[in-house]
């Protein structure tokens, strides 16, 4: 688990950026007349299509192993959330940025917490 500020801020910033991009893109495509399941599915697809090139580009700066899982998960979660929100009401750019950013931060924090839990459990089992 990375603890150096450059990488921690890079991880959280990357997830924030990708989440915002995915939610804005999904909100622009999904309309309020769409069925929720279709909006979620398209949001997940857009999330993967946006997160994969972003993860490849950002992994040169922050490391591939630390960035790939959270960014792909952020793309899917932000896409699903924006797809669901877009079917209820029109999702504007500002709302998409906030929704996607929150999704990205929650996913990154959850990934860090789960990674810490696994490392602590492994240390307990070793002793």
Q: How would you describe this structure to a colleague?
A:
By secondary structure, this protein is mainly alpha-helical. The chain has one domain. Helix content is 87%, strand content 0%. It contains four helices and no strands. It has helices spanning 5-29, 36-62, 64-88, 93-126. Helix 1 runs parallel beside helix 3 (64-88), helix 2 (36-62) packs antiparallel against helix 3 and helix 3 crosses helix 4. It is elongated and about 55 Å long. The protein starts with a helix and ends with a helix. The mean pLDDT is 94.
Characteristic terms for this protein:
127 residues, 4 helices, 87% helix, mainly alpha, elongated
